[in-house]
Amino acid sequence: MKYLLILIILFFFSGCLYVNNTGISDRYYNDCHEYYDAMGIYHKVCDKNLINFKDLEPTVK
Q1: CA distance between the termini of the chain
Q2: Is the pTM above the cut of 0.90?
Q3: Would you state the pLDDT for residue 38?
Q4: In the sheet that 18-19 helps form, which strands lie side by side, from edge to edge?
Q5: DSSP 3-state of 23
């Protein structure tokens, strides 16, 4: 019963979540703003993902 409920929830929200190259987001494309500041340093600021793939990787010590 628990697995059926999880599958129903995943199916229901599958239209709202997208998998991109950095993680799972609520947008199909990440909106990134690229700019140079007054000193000429390049910056790229992107929207946050709901789940980042880097956070899921196990850390090796």
Answers
A1: 38
A2: no
A3: 95
A4: 18-19, 23-25, 51-52
A5: strand
Question: Measuring CA to CA, how many Å separate 11 from each of 20, 51, 56?
Answer: 18, 18, 22
Question: What is the C-alpha to C-alpha distance for residues 11 and 17, in angstroms, rounded to an integer?
Answer: 10
The first and second tokens of residue 24, run together, are: 């799972």
Residue 17 in contact with residue 26, Cβ under 8 Å? yes
Mean pLDDT per 10-residue run, the chain (61 residues)? 76 68 75 92 87 73 61
β partners of residue 43:
35
Token output for 26 = 């609520």
Q: Quote the pLDDT of residue 22.
A: 72
